[in-house]
Sequence to fold (56 residues):
Amino acid sequence: MNEDPNESASEDARIDEIVKRGPSGAIALAGISTAIVIGIWFVFYFAVFLPRGVIQ
Fold:
């Protein structure tokens, strides 16, 4: 393959710029997923455990 060195350098510069911005999308996805799991846990807690009352 005959790759143009300028094109390769340009692509490397674009990749470096993307990497410098960090994993913001992955962090947002992890935060949303965690919030959903915690929300489901609270719904389960208030809908199932509290109505049953104290178990003796």
The chain has two helices and no strands.
